[in-house]
């Protein structure tokens, strides 16, 4: 038997084994995909009814990072039973004045919204483990790409409504160079998820929190994965609103798709800032948190069958 023939036969055997292997792998993939499909297309009985999920999560605690969607308040107040004493369907400057956030949470929410905690001052941190444990399972909120978030923070300088004692002083301050500012703000979502945010109660947005570590980010991401009843993404606002109602019930309202506090006219989180402004900066601490939020969001989008097609009944109210 020639060497050439032996080589050819060996190649043929190898090719046949590869084909059989590929077919076996395809079978495995098909089985896994079928199993996953069966898991993700759970019935209402398996997932629980929306009103049951909402009741289990009440009173909702809104975890609100700066520049991560003030407008989400209009989804919270429109959930059935969350604010039964509220006549408003929309909270914004036209209904409650330029300081509508503080006005709502201090003057309106306590007497009207039994299904949510009236969290004020805004942007509160979750604190130590005891504080977090008391809120675990009741947390709802949206997250944002950390580099886009810090750019939004930077561009919002001087555009605040002036609702706090330090607002005038802050708005009249000279804005620092971007990299200096970004370094101060780095790890902000991680900080808020794991610490008590003193900047919201006593100081200005330039008060420096202690630098966040990879261990802080790890704990923050764990809280996102385990402690939140709902996780949305500002970059996927429409799908997030649809998912919110799929999970907790109620009808979508046009007000939920409006940006009630844009940084500038026509700007919202669906339009990215120019990343060249970052000049090489990257918030690798908050990236860990955002990755966790992205994972939770994607899993729930699949679990609750949320897509552009399935959400058309919800989206139909936009602009109406």
From TrEMBL:
Keywords: Signal. Residues 1-22 form the signal peptide. It comes from the Eukaryota. InterPro entries: P-loop_NTPase (IPR027417). This is Sulfotransferase domain-containing protein.
